[in-house]
Design a protein that fits this description.
The chain is α+β, with helices and mostly antiparallel strands. It is 30% helix and 27% strand. It has helices at residues 2-17, 33-40, 48-61, 119-134, and strands at 25-27, 41-45, 65-70, 75-80, 84-94, 97-107, 112-115, 138-140.
Length: 181
């Protein structure tokens, strides 16, 4: 009898301890796709490899744990404190400039995430540190410019976004743009 119980525990035990895959429900932003693209995307001068590696380094510096990296696709997914999820896409705009698009969501409960749609969050909590890591400036995309598709969010997140100073938008008619601060 004891032997049957021991065998049953050995068979069931590992399955009971295995992490359970749960479906996350994403509560999307009420903002338009154009507004989201403007706050989530920046143009950065440099080659794809350097900017991609800088993105990973910045996420690490900010306390994120990288959960998935796909260099060939230019995507990185990361989580901070199991509450804040960030997915970043790095895609070429020109041979010497990349478009970097970040998408963040905060876990509101065990099964629900809320998309972050505060421009200051992206600027203060990702693009400014990324520009510092790369030693360059991140420029807002000119109006009407295509940006990478909105990255899909991973199914894990981190802390509540904090407010930051307002983001100034550069003039789309000037070729020499002012950096977004």
């Amino acid at each position: 009898m004891m032997r049957k119980i021991a065998v049953a525990l050995l068979l069931v035990g590992p399955a009971a301890c295995a992490p359970q895959q749960r479906d996350m429900q994403l509560i999307p932003s009420a903002r338009s796709a154009v507004e989201l693209r403007a706050m989530q995307s920046r143009t950065i001068d440099g080659d794809r490899s350097t900017i991609y590696r800088g993105t990973i380094a910045t996420l690490h510096d900010l306390g994120y744990r990288v959960t998935r990296a796909e260099p060939s696709a230019g995507t990185v997914s990361a989580v901070k404190l199991n509450r804040l999820y960030m997915t970043v896409v790095v895609q070429p705009r020109t041979p010497s400039a990349m478009v970097v698009r970040a998408n963040a969501a905060v876990a509101m409960s065990i099964s629900t995430q809320q998309q972050v749609d505060v421009p200051e969050f992206y600027q203060q909590n990702f693009f400014a540190p990324l520009a510092g890591t790369l030693g360059t400036q991140a420029f807002a995309l000119p109006a009407g410019t295509d940006a990478p598709e909105q990255p899909a969010l991973p199914t894990s997140a981190s802390p509540t976004p904090q407010a930051a100073p307002p983001v100034s938008q550069p003039s789309s008619s000037n070729r020499q743009q002012e950096p977004v601060r």
